[in-house]
Design a protein that fits this description.
about 10% strand, Rossmann fold, seven-stranded mixed β-sheet, about 45% helix, six-stranded mixed β-sheet, 24 helices
């Protein structure tokens, strides 16, 4: 007998059909957790789980008998095949254990194969009764275990399937020998595209997509939705009111919020590179390379001082991939086990909502923290346990397919080395003057502020400062305040100059340390900002002056000197 397994296929109906065929060969009981309540793309139609199984059985001239607690038993005939009827002895008030015994005995006496489906099994086997199963619940588990162990079912070609529609069948049942367990979540990309193409060609009620929003784009955009949800949207489309990407995003947003309530939130800010985000050539090179193999999941770390664009860079990644950006709320709790349960739920939800991008920043550093360092201040081992869990799910290059991971941290050395070795580490550094000016102009455009052309760059050239991107926006906001106070029609160069001279953030040892840690962690030389600018043919092809001692003449890093200086800073901090 086969041990319990979990079957997941690109097309969920294919997993059901495969389980059916396997059950005829080895007598395994099919247990299906259908928590989404979705329809499946099967044989040119959209069918629920029961109809998929019954249609496949009918294609083999096998009739189906369905039993559920609410509506009793009914027969579904296979056209051209043998006829079955509901056996005598099953009425409205027949106890489920008696009804199941009658149905199993009827199958064993039948000279031809039968598909027996116990539907809405979560009503027959309530989850709150499974851990201490007794009475009817224990008897039903025993009956199903007997089916899996009885070779007569296999010899007769019979198939028994247990369908859970609302909850999940517990391990007391699914871990029994001889069970094939299928967890049917949301449809994958291939199934969504298949279903959308079917809807586009429907003679009764075709789906109408907006120009430029084709089936491939719609399949990517509907990752959070069930096929049922897409079909409902289809009913409201017409040539005058086609389905748009924005309409899909609005529907998906509501789904995300329901699914993630209490454990995460969705950042809906769209950041378009070149319009809302300028500079950061290393990010543009990263995304250009990923576009060559878009099916590969991104695993990246953005490291550098606060205010250098790591979070907005993550938003730009999500916008570029046309995927939602999901941020975990505080998953770590003080009680042992609670944090792990939160993290498991978060990861499971992430996987069900793919394609998606998740950002793990310093607010949730327990998910990626260096386990050796965190163990000293973590007596319960919660941080180490969470990091191990994330490593297990994201460490495999093919794991969590469709979920893109961005780790953002001011301190690269705080990230677990095993996690760091599995991602591309990209440095985010304080920008040069040209990029600072361009970022101030982009910020003014996005806020509909009138900034005098060339004023930002001229002010920075006259009063050169080492600022982060966040500093630049702060200076711009102050310049606008001064312009309003002076009743200037636009933000003038003098307003920017006054704000620059008045602003004093300083570049302290912490910023130097964060910058050097980011350089030390950098995976590829081509992702250094100046090297990425060379590849893109841009002007800023030299490292900042303050980093010259850490960079070779060819633009590569002097890692020995970086490590030496970081050790000096560590020693100073320890004094």
């Amino acid at each position: 007998m086969n041990e319990a397994t979990t079957a997941i296929a690109p097309l969920r109906a294919a997993a059901l059909v495969g389980a059916f065929d396997g059950s005829q060969l080895d007598g395994t009981v099919i247990a299906v957790n259908d928590q989404s309540g979705d329809v499946l793309a099967h044989d040119g139609a959209l069918r629920d789980v029961l109809r998929v199984l019954a249609a496949h059985a009918a294609s083999k001239l096998i009739p189906t008998i369905v039993y559920c607690l609410r509506s009793g038993a009914r027969a579904l005939q296979a056209p051209g095949g043998p006829t079955v009827s509901v056996p005598a002895g099953i009425g409205d008030r027949t106890p489920p254990t008696v009804a199941i015994d009658v149905l199993l005995e009827y199958c064993l006496r039948s000279p031809t194969p039968i598909l027996l489906v116990l539907d809405w099994a979560d009503h027959l086997l309530p989850a709150d009764q499974l851990p201490t199963a007794n009475g009817d619940t224990a008897r039903i588990i025993e009956q199903l275990a007997d089916v899996a162990a009885n070779p007569a079912f296999r010899r007769g070609g019979h198939v028994v399937a247990v369908l859970s529609r609302g909850g999940s069948l517990g391990p007391q049942l699914t871990q029994l020998p001889g069970f094939s367990v299928l967890n049917l979540g949301l449809p994958g990309h291939a199934e969504r595209r298949t279903a959308i193409e079917q809807m586009l060609n429907s003679p009764r009620r075709p789906l109408v997509l907006a120009p430029g929003f084709d089936a491939a784009a719609a399949a990517r955009a509907t990752g959070a939705l069930r096929l049922y949800d897409i079909s409902v949207m289809r009913e409201h489309t017409s040539p005058e009111h086609p389905l748009t990407a924005e309409g899909v995003r609005e529907r998906a947003q509501a789904v995300f919020e329901r699914a993630l309530q209490g454990i995460a939130r969705v950042d809906t800010t769209r950041v378009v590179i070149g319009r809302d985000l300028v500079g950061l050539p290393q990010l543009r090179v990263l995304l250009e390379d990923h576009a060559l193999d878009p099916e590969a999941p991104l695993r990246v770390g953005f490291y550098g001082p606060a205010g250098t664009g790591k979070s907005i860079g993550a938003r730009a990644v999500a916008t570029s991939l046309d995927a939602p950006l999901i941020l975990p709320e505080t998953l770590k709790e003080q009680w042992v086990g609670a944090s792990e349960r939160n993290a498991v739920r978060f990861l499971a939800t992430l996987e069900s909502l793919k394609p998606a991008v998740t950002l793990i920043d310093d607010q949730n550093d327990a998910l990626t923290a260096d386990r050796e360092r965190s163990s000293h201040g973590d007596p319960n081992g919660i941080s180490g346990s969470l990091t191990g869990l994330f490593l297990d799910r994201f460490g495999d290059p093919t794991g969590m397919a469709g979920v893109h991971l961005v780790i953002a941290s001011n301190y690269a050395r705080r990230i677990d080395p095993a996690m760091k070795s599995r991602i591309k580490c990209v440095p985010f550094l304080p920008p040069g003057l040209d990029d600072l000016a361009a970022q101030m102009e982009a910020a003014a455009r996005s806020r509909s502020w009138d900034l005098e052309p060339g004023a930002a760059l001229q002010a920075l050239l006259e009063h050169p400062r080492r600022l982060t991107s966040r500093d630049a926006v702060t200076v711009l906001a102050e310049a606008r305040t001064r312009a309003l106070r002076a009743r200037h029609p636009v933000i003038a160069g003098s307003d920017v100059v006054e704000s620059l001279t008045d602003y004093n953030p300083g570049i302290d040892a912490a910023v130097e340390r964060q910058t050097l840690e980011a350089l030390e962690a950098t995976t590829f030389t081509s992702h250094l900002p100046w090297m990425a600018a060379r590849r893109l043919g841009e002007a800023s092809t030299q490292p900042p002056t303050e980093l010259h001692e850490f960079v070779h003449a060819d633009g590569s890093l002097d890692r020995d000197r970086i490590t030496e200086r970081l050790n000096e800073l560590e020693a100073q901090r320890a004094r």
